[in-house]
Structure formats: C-alpha cells, structure tokens
Specification:
With 428 residues, this protein is α/β, with parallel strands linked by helices. The chain is built from 17 helices and eight strands. Strands 3-2-1-8-7-6-5-4 form an eight-stranded parallel sheet. The structure holds geranylgeranyl diphosphate and SN-glycerol-1-phosphate. The site of geranylgeranyl diphosphate has 28 residues, from strand 4, helix 5 and helix 7. Its EC number is 2.5.1.41.
Length: 428
C-alpha cells in the first residue's frame, strides 16, 4: 500500500521539478503573457467612460487591451466593450473585478482572463474575492454552461465532475496578477483596503515579488499607482523588483500621459506600461471638439479647411490625443499622429452629419430602413478610409455598422443596434 502511494507522489514531484527547471533555466519562455508587449491600454466598460469614435485608429499602436474596472462594471457592459474590440487585430484580455463579469461571451472574446491578487492589501483581496469567484464559477457559471451543452439526460454526477474539471481548467488558464498598490487614494487601494501603512519600500516590494513568482506563480507583478505618476519612488521599486524576477513579467500602471514618464518606467525595469485614464480623456475631449466643429464648419468642409480648423482651434500639443499617443513607445511623432487622427475624427463626424441629413429626409422607420438608405447613398462610408489601416478587410463592415447604428440612435429609431455605439464619444 505504502509503495503504491509512494510512486504517484514521486512521479508528481518529478513532473513539478521538471516544470520548475523549464521555467527558470529552460531555453523556452513558458510565461503566457507575451514579453514583447510594451504598452497596454486599459478600457473601463462603465457607461460614463467612452471610447473615441475612431477607436481602432488609436488602439492600433498599443500591444494589447485590458477590459475591466472597479466601479459600475457589469457583465453586460463588459460584453459590449468586447464586442467593439472583436473586429480589431489587437489582442484583448479580461481583468474582471468580480467573477460575475465573466460570461461565455467574454471568455470567447478574451485572449485570457487576468485575475488581480493584491500583495499589500488585506487577505480578502488576496484570496477572499478569489474564493468567492471560484465558488461562483464552480457552482453557477460552469454548471450553467455545461447543462446547455450536454444532453438533458446527463446524470448529475457526471455534470458535477465536468463542472469541477471546467473550473480548474478556467483557473489554470487564467493569468494571475500580483498587484502592489502604492497610491492609497485610488479606487484600487480602497477596494483592496490598502492604506498608508501598507505601502512597500523597494526592498519589501522585491521580497513580495519573489514570493509571488515562486509561491503564487503569478504570471505578472503589477506596480499600481492608479491615477497618479509614481516618479522616482516607482523607478526605485521597478529597479529592485526587475532584478529579482526571472519568469514573471513586470508591469507599471498609473498616471502616465507623456513619453518621458512612460519611457522612465520602461527604463527603470518595467516590461510593460499600462495606461487607462488618458485613453478615456481622448474620448471626452473629442466630444467637445466635434460639437464645436459641427457649429463652426459646414458638413461639406474639405480636408484643408478641417486641418486648418484643427490646428487653429485645438491645441494639439496639449491634447489628450497627443498625450495618449506619446505613451506608446512605437509612435515616432505623437503630435503629427494626433493631428492626423483629430482631423480624421472631425471629417468623419461631418460626413456622418451629411449622411444623417440625407437619411432623415427619406423618413426611415427602422434600423433596416437606415441600413438600406446608407447603402444607397454612399460608396465610401464615414471613417471607412481611416479604418482601413487598422481593421483591414473588416473596415467597410465596421464603418457601415457604426454609421447605421449612430444614425439609428440619432434619429430616435431605437436602441437596438448591432454594435454598442452608446460607448462611443459621439453619444455622450
Ligand atoms: C475567479 C475569477 C474569474 C475572478 C475573480 C475576480 C477577482 C479575484 C477580482 C479581484 C478584485 C480585487 C481584489 C481588486 C483589487 C483592486 C484592483 C487591483 C483593481 C484594479 O484596478 P482598476 O480596475 O484598474 O481600477 P480603476 O477602475 O480605479 O482604474
Ligand atoms: O488610469 P491610469 O492612471 O492611467 O492607470 C492605469 C492603470 O494602472 C489603472 O489600473
């Protein structure tokens, strides 16, 4: 009996040992989070936070998009955000703040699920919420999904065993993010009960990260200053932590809105910088710019007129569009790129206005009517040529859907749109 027990234990230890050797000294990088992601954009699905109308243009430069946020997030607005990202080639992953935000749809859309575990918060934020989430997945999500897929006569015992396996598979596929939260005034700190006394020195952050890599096997360590730039203190922490990590990635997020600050965090040792607020600022700013443009410019304004208007009226140098783009290391000239994208946005809004006048004249009653009228009216759809560089072959379909949906809402023909365009700046 003892001998029978000893063999599987020994085998288990051998497999574990081989895994450790492969992770630490093996020639292959076994971390599922790509090492070459230098920039991640965090999209908050909450209704108050909008996306720029030509969001595919802005997102073409980022390495990946993270979907998640800590307030007013629901499964429905999370699914909506993913559906806007589906036509794009940029990978999108899900960072749920509650397990209930994970649905079959979000799982299909997301490259992976990233689960926060806060290293310097209370135990609730390290394992408590994970326990609540695991219970939900084991007892509600997977039984619900499986009972739809398996034949009705599947015995309960089999359904239960399958749910058990599916839960473990879901968690084994998830990426764990070991958060070190250093801004006590942030929503993230409040959520995880991090206060002044919990902030870590560079040395303690390094020690916590070493434990996260080896004990928690966290795919990434996330230095979080959410809402504020961490400066020299963050750079010291990144330097200490990066030295100690072999396998886990090191991400920095918080208050980035310039090339200088983003580069400083990368130079200090971060593999990836994460930006959130400044991307949503692009949409908020754009709503105002477009409202002004509709007052100042004729819907027929040519490209030169629009460019001049943007140069004279919008301070491109100070714009959120430029600030966002300047955080992306691969964008060589953020000012010129921001100006191009702002001109593209204003032109698209004017083209939409022109199209709206023609469509409204015909008196459509349903979204289908709008669709036929749009198809009759135009060879090139508003925004289509700008989306070509980023959505490729999908650009026409995407531009058509956005145009039809935006006009359907503007003409009060209902909210039953194909894409959730209520998340775009034009619908503020
Ligand atoms: C098991 C599954 C699928 C899910 C569990 C979901 C869990 C454990 C969520 C953890 C929630 C938690 C402890 C959050 C702590 C705070 C935190 C790290 C928030 C991340 O910050 P943002 O969401 O970016 O904050 P803002 O909304 O302020 O930008
Ligand atoms: O919103 P900002 O301050 O850019 O922070 C990004 C991210 O680290 C938040 O979780």
């Amino acid at each position: 009996m003892v001998a029978f027990d000893a063999l599987p234990r020994r085998l288990g230890r051998l497999v574990d040992g081989l895994g450790i050797v492969a992770r630490t000294v093996g020639p292959f990088d076994t971390n599922p989070v790509p090492a070459d992601w230098s920039h991640v954009t965090k999209l908050d699905p909450e209704d108050a936070k909008k996306l720029p109308l030509l969001y595919p243009l802005f997102l073409r430069h980022t390495s990946a998009v993270s979907v998640g946020g800590s307030s007013d997030v629901t499964a429905a607005n999370t699914e909506e955000t993913f559906s806007l990202l589906e036509p794009l080639s940029v990978p999108a992953f899900h960072e749920p703040s509650e397990a209930k935000h994970v649905t079959e749809r979000t799982r299909e859309s997301a490259a992976f699920i990233a689960i926060p575990e806060v290293l310097n918060g209370d135990s609730e934020s390290l394992v408590g919420t994970l326990g609540v989430g695991t219970e939900y997945i084991r007892e509600e999500l997977t039984p619900g999904m499986l009972s739809e897929k398996l034949p009705w006569w599947t015995p309960n015992r089999v359904l239960d065993a399958c749910s058990n396996v599916a839960t473990s598979l879901l968690l084994s596929e998830a990426v764990f993010e070991a958060y070190i939260i250093q801004n006590p005034d942030s929503a993230a700190a409040r959520e995880a009960n991090v206060d002044e006394d919990d902030l870590l020195s560079a040395r303690a952050a390094k020690q916590h990260s070493m434990a996260a890599e080896r004990h928690l096997e966290s795919e990434l360590v996330y230095l979080e200053y959410s809402g504020t730039y961490g400066g020299d203190e963050a750079a010291d922490i990144l330097a200490a932590v990066s030295e100690s990590l072999d396998w886990s990635r090191l991400w920095y997020g918080g208050g980035l809105d310039s090339r200088e600050h983003a580069q400083a965090m990368l130079d200090a040792g971060a593999d990836t910088v994460v930006v959130g607020d400044v991307f949503h600022d692009v949409a908020a700013e754009e709503a105002k710019i477009c409202a002004d443009a509709r007052t100042d410019l004729s819907p027929d304004a040519d490209v030169r007129t629009v460019r001049e208007w943007v140069t004279d009226t919008v301070g491109v140098e100070e714009s959120a569009a430029r600030r966002y783009l300047s955080t992306v290391p691969s964008v060589d000239d953020p000012t010129a790129t921001a100006e191009r994208y702002l001109v593209a946005t204003v032109r698209t809004v004017l083209e939409l206005e022109r199209l709206e006048a023609v469509v409204a004249e015909a008196g459509p009653e349903t979204r289908d009517d709008v669709c036929s009228l749009v198809d009759e009216q135009t060879d090139t759809l508003p925004g289509e040529r700008y989306l070509q560089s980023t959505a490729g072959e999908a650009s026409r379909t995407l531009a058509r859907t956005i145009a039809v949906d935006v006009l359907t809402r503007r003409l009060d023909l209902g909210d039953d749109t194909e894409l959730p365009v209520s998340h775009l700046s034009t619908n503020q």
